[in-house]
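We give the entry.
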Amino acid sequence: MDSRDFDEIERFLTTVGKATLFEYLGLGEDVADEAVDAALQKRRSWAQGQQSNPKYRTEAIWLIKNMGLVKRVLVQERGGYLGELQQREQGRKLQILKQYILGTLAEGRLSRRDKAGVMQQARALGLAEPLAQQALDELAAQTGAQAEGEPSEVFVDHYLTLGLRPDADYNSLYSSYRQRLEQLRHTLDRQLAEEQRDALELAWRVLSDPAAREAFDQQRRLVVGGAAPIRPAGLPEPAAAGPIARATEPAPRAPSAPAPAEAPSAPVELRPKLALVERPAEPEARPPLPPPTSEREALRPNPSLGRFSIEPAGTLALQLGKKPQVVELKVRRVGTEAAPCKLFVERAWVSVEPRTLSGPPGEHTVQITVDPSKMERESAVAIITVLSELTGQRATLTLDVKRPAPAPVAAILMVAMALLAVIGGAAWWLSRPPPPAAPQSGVLIVEVDPAAGEISVNGDILSTNGRLRLDQGLRGQALKIGVQLDGFAPVQEAVQVQAGETLTLRPVLELTDKMDFIPPRDEAPALIDEAKARAALDATAPAAAACLAQHGPGEPGATITATATLLSTHEGWIRSMKLREPGLGRAALQTCLRRVVRATRLPFVNGYAQTTYTWTAQKAPGR
């Protein structure tokens, strides 16, 4: 199977916390094809129903888009998929063996007894002896250790490291180098990722410099006829044909320096005879790309791939008339390699144009058209999602839409009767009893604790701020109420509201986030809009004051001050809280304040952000 397909599947499995597609679908590796089809059909039905659920939206959209890929991998290419899984598992085991070898070579010597210990460790891990011997030779060459008193040299083919053929041009080298560095972001084994990154950086430094590449090519021609060159563990095999930008011939040698004998008919040296393009006499010198300075810099989302921001963000209230209304959404894509973005909306009365943003970075204007004639209710909510499929960044704009209610049927009838009375002048119309009043509706009120989250009724999201009031059409029918808030366990409840009844639900959400986010040591916090952050935290003052009054220390009536250092991730959710004042470490107080701040969303940033905030309250009596 194509390694790019495997990497795409691996990225998806990482987001859902599964190791293989079989584990994700709850199937065995030897399951029949019919069982695979049934499991995929069941999962497709689930995904179609979860596209509007923020918790599972990304997973559902990926499944719907890649259902054909998943079926092909599990049915037609199951053998290749299992083989790739086995190969990568072998790469992880090889890393364990290499750590053992490095400990053995710590003193710079390798005795026969040491070598036997390495082979015994390899057998315990289930690795073949030739592979263990290759790893031993490679590490002995890197550390300068002598095996049995004889020097050991290993030739590493940098073209194999980048997955290219020897006649690849500069652009192909650069593209493959950047693409493979980006793939390392999704490698769970950090030790394996570090080794692969070092190999990629070395290959890039050598092959991007014309003089160094020419010297490497000469060395490669000397050894290409021997044993197969070593490719670092875990790197994908190069494609059969490889990306070829132009056909080249070996550079002629100076008459004074006789050319060394090359191995005849070496497979990697065969070149297609393309005479349409000629190589320039002098290669164009290009500055080498500076390598990453740390492991985290190589594995974190690459800033050059670009991010985006939207304006407006959050919730936008719209009061419609009878005609469609157009709203403009500004999407600003930044970065030297701006990633394409796609827009999604699942409401028939909302249309978005364009739905795909690509091309060079800059500001794009998206036209959002809201048609009130297609709305089923007088008030509804629509969520427009902007998604970068390359970086996974997501931003949403929620439209809280209200349209004027149509004129009641009873009022229209009364006007018609009045006209008939004036025209006919008959007292009979005036003496008729009034029409029966419309059946009275019930009232449903939902107030979420904490005051945030999306509230859905029978699957439709009707509120995004943790509060909802329904007072139309409630006459005893069954309603399924759902509450969803990031970091909290979802809540679902089935109710019936009778005519004339007022039912109030106050669901208390259970905090599931441990609030133990630790920022990277070598990464500084991003700049945050302090004015917007303070405005968002000001809204928490009443709830936080209630926590301090009920659970804080001190005598009744005493003033309690709490200053918190808050860390938020790139989507704005607060993921860590530390109180500065001593004596505020009570578990009940900490839990109460964490529920308040976890439900608060700060401005979006590229990375993580840090801010501080102070609450004050008076100790409640009797506590």
Notes: The chain has six domains: 1-76, 88-153, 158-251+266-299, 310-402, 443-505, 530-618. Residues 530-618 form a domain with the TolA/TonB C-terminal domain fold (CATH 3.30.2420). Residues 347 and 529 are 32 Å apart (CA to CA). The radius of gyration is 33 Å.
